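As a warm-up, study this chain.
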Amino acid sequence: MVLLTGFEPFTTGRGLSLSHNPTADIALSVASETAGVTGAVLPVSYAKTPVALSSLFETHRPRIWVGLGYAPHRETLDIEQIAVNVAHANRGDNDGACPQREVIVAGGPVAYETGLDISAAVARFKDHGVVAQPAFHAGTFMCNQVFYLGCHRRAQGAIDLAAFIHVPPMDDFGPFSRGLAAVLTDLMEAQHGPA
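Now compare it with the structure written out below.
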């Protein structure tokens, strides 16, 4: 089973206040239309997000987790490769917390690498007319926090794969959603064979 998460609205590091976060809609709609996928929306809170994510893992027991983060200042669909054990914010989260160079997991490694075959995912998105590319650092805000926590869970053997995708503004999220559903289906079939 796949757990697919998006986020609630937030204010970006550049001060753009979002009243809507499309990753929430994408996570829920792709999950509703794709067998074996559960969707959820995470808070934008350094304190609450780890608790919410852990609860989702314990409740649904996924073997694969894919997180989505909205990146309104990016122009490319970025599949992240590295999560770092650093929480750092120039602007507060939705609760006003603004950590400065804090560790996410005490005693955890400096960084984790996704287990996702990024080249295969890029090719699958291309099949749906969506240009994606590898990116090498998920930042130090909430997206990196959940990516690191997902990778840490994988390192502990609780899940088989953790991945994170930064989603830029798009005129139509439909092709991305269909490509994402195909990527997730490929991942499930690689584990269990075709349905």
